[in-house]
Amino acid sequence: MYTYECRVVPGLLQTEAYARAVSLDVPPLPDPEELEQRIAARLARQELLAVTRKPPTAFSFIVEQAVLERWTGGEEVTREQFDRLLELVERNWNVEFQVMPLRQPSHAGMDGPMRLAETPDNCWFAYSEGQQNGRLIANAKEISLLQQRYAKLRSQALTPEDSLSLLKRLRGAL
């Protein structure tokens, strides 16, 4: 699964506090029951990251540096989120994490966030979303275009090692 995100930390990587802050920041506010269901579902999906799954799934995440520096939910939520990211990146060999630096004159992700996923039988799907909508993409030509964009994004982002170093520096600054 490949994910490029320019707005928030991807749901699969979010802590409970970060997921709550994101859910409460965007009007209309959910009722308490809906909020708890939304957060529980998001956290349950994180089981996909487990390296003990048979077969384990490979994940690649590219996240804009501005997302990390936004401090969604405040300092404590951000500190906890950084700790979660560091734990995932350092302990899960199936999770690759890259940061798109703030200054990147050539940027293939200007059309917004995207997710690409390959099924066990090698079929590809994509998903893109914006304000109030989302779109599942199954058209091979559209998926090919998004795969090309994602490949370009990977080459434009910091390496996984440099991304980890930046994440540690950002965490240390809190």
Can you characterise this structure?
With 174 residues, the chain is α/β, with parallel strands linked by helices. It has one domain: 2-Layer Sandwich (Endonuclease, Chain A), CATH 3.30.870. 44% of the residues lie in helices and 19% in strands. The chain contains 6 helices and 6 strands, in the order E-H-H-E-H-H-E-E-E-E-H-H. Helix 1 crosses helix 2 and helix 4 packs antiparallel against helix 6.
Short characterization:
Helices cover 44% and strands 19% of the residues. With 174 residues, the chain is an alpha/beta fold. The protein starts with a strand and ends with a helix.
SSE layout and pairings?
Blueprint: E1 2-5, H1 16-25, H2 32-45, E2 59-64, H3 65-69, H4 75-91, E3 95-100, E4 114-118, E5 124-130, E6 133-137, H5 140-156, H6 160-172
Parallel strand pairs: 1-2, 2-3
Antiparallel strand pairs: 1-4, 4-5, 5-6
Q: What structural class is derived from the secondary structure elements?
A: alpha/beta
How much is the radius of gyration in Å?
16 Å
Structure summary, number of beta strands: 6
Average pLDDT across residues? Answer: 93
CATH class call: Alpha Beta
Gross morphology: globular
CATH architecture label: 2-Layer Sandwich
- Reading side by side through the largest sheet, how are the strands ordered? 3-2-1-4-5-6
Low-pLDDT regions: none
The percent of residues in helical segments reads 40-55%
Strand content: 15-25%
- Oligomeric organization of the protein chains: single chain
The biggest sheet amounts to: 6 strands, mixed
Distance between the termini: 31 Å
